[in-house]
Amino acid sequence: MGSSISLFARRRMRNRTQIRKKSSGRPRLSVHRSGKHIYAQVIDDAKGVTVAAASTLEKGLKAKSGANVEAASAVGKLIAERAKKAGVGEVVFDRGGFLYHGRVKALAEAAREGGLQF
Predict the structure, then answer these.
(1) In this predicted structure, what is the pLDDT of residue 3?
(2) Range of 44's domain?
(3) 10-residue block means of pLDDT along the chain (118 residues)?
(4) What does the alpha-carbon distance between residue 36 and residue 58 come to, in Å, rounded to a whole number?
(5) Is the dihedral of CA 98, 45, 82, 37 positive or negative?
(6) Whether pTM exceeds 0.85
(7) Where are any strands of DSSP class E within the chain?
């Protein structure tokens, strides 16, 4: 018999372990992807505070669909802009248990273009 933990949960734990090793005090850019929307937030784990957040639920970003690559790119640009405004330039990317592909990848690349380093 295998483990009772899902593949998603295993990927998430493996990813978080790597993030703890690499973080060295940098804030974490956490991404959550649902069927209809994508959410991103920059979290300072040392203080336990969310520094900046963005999602496809916001009025300015509400397009026909929040579940596509274009919407994810818009969220990535917005989170980078808000993080820079809050004084954050370097982050550690936390994809959670999601694969680095499609919408998650589009958000990450747009955040890099927006000036965040990770």
Answers:
(1) 72
(2) 7-113
(3) 82 91 89 96 94 93 81 96 96 95 97 96
(4) 13
(5) positive
(6) yes
(7) 28-33, 38-44, 49-55, 92-94
| CATH number of the domain bearing residue 57 | 3.30.420.100
> What distance in Å separates the CA atoms of residue 4 and residue 46, rounded to the nearest whole number?
32
Rounded distance between C-alpha atoms, residue 97 and residue 31, angstroms: 9
Beta carbons within 8 Å of 17's beta carbon, 6+ residues apart: none
CA distance 81 to 75: 10
Distance CA(100)–CA(116), nearest Å, equals 17
State how far the Cα of 1 lies from the Cα of 100, in Å rounded to an integer: 29
Kindly calculate the radius of gyration of the chain based on its CA atoms and give it in whole angstroms: 14
